[in-house]
Amino acid sequence: MARKEDPTADFEAAEKHLTAGIRLAPAFSVGWRDRGTLRMMRGLHKKGLGQDPREDFAAAQQDFDRGVLGGREYPGRGLSSEFLRPWVGRARLRLERAAWASESGGDPAPDRAAADEDLERAIAFNPRDAEAFAVRGRLRLQRGQKQEALQDFARAVELNPHLEPRIARDRDARR
């Protein structure tokens, strides 16, 4: 018989380790992205339990924002592909926040617009980023832009065929 575990214990342990890594290398944007992703996932877990995810979403936003800054405040470091992941992660968070706003009677438009800006930056910087196209497809589905969404999903799968099962779930869940 499988043991029923509290997944929040895993969140806490992982967050502790990611925070330690960030302390060692504060200019490493991937650490901020990963902790932001963890905090977003914890918020989604709470949302699934019917709890308010806003505190976790706000903490994730701070981490993604810091990840996008990356090492630019450190001499000798400039913009690199390392910054793509926080842009796409922050866009994904903004889509989740937009969905939360929509479900709870709020306005999803500001988060959708901000997600669109992040995705446009990521795609302009690297037009072969499959994840950015997949997330932009989700954004376009939320906006009711089915044809554009299908084009983005097709491009994402063309760039990374391993994304196809996840994209099919996203596409079918929003029909």
Structure description:
This protein is mainly alpha-helical and 175 residues long. The protein folds into two domains: 9-67, no CATH class; 91-175, Serine Threonine Protein Phosphatase 5, Tetratricopeptide repeat (Alpha Horseshoe), CATH 1.25.40.10. 73% of the residues lie in helices and 0% in strands. The protein has helices at residues 7-24, 29-48, 54-69, 84-103, 109-125, 130-142, 146-159, 164-173. The chain is globular and about 45 Å long. Residues 73-80 have low confidence and may be disordered.
Mean pLDDT reading: 86
Question: Multimeric state of these chains?
Answer: single chain
Number of discrete domains: 2
Helix/strand class: mainly alpha
Strand portion: under 5%
What separation lies between the terminal Cα atoms?
37 Å
* Count, helices: 8
Largest sheet: none
SS elements, strand count: 0
In the CATH scheme, the class of the largest domain would be Mainly Alpha
Please tell me what the overall shape is: globular
Helix content: over 70%
CATH architecture of the largest domain: Alpha Horseshoe
Give the C-alpha Rg.
Answer: 17 Å
Low-confidence stretches: 73-80
Helix-strand topology string: HHHHHHHH
Q: Give me the CATH fold name of the largest domain.
A: Serine Threonine Protein Phosphatase 5, Tetratricopeptide repeat
The CATH homologous superfamily of the largest domain: Tetratricopeptide repeat domain
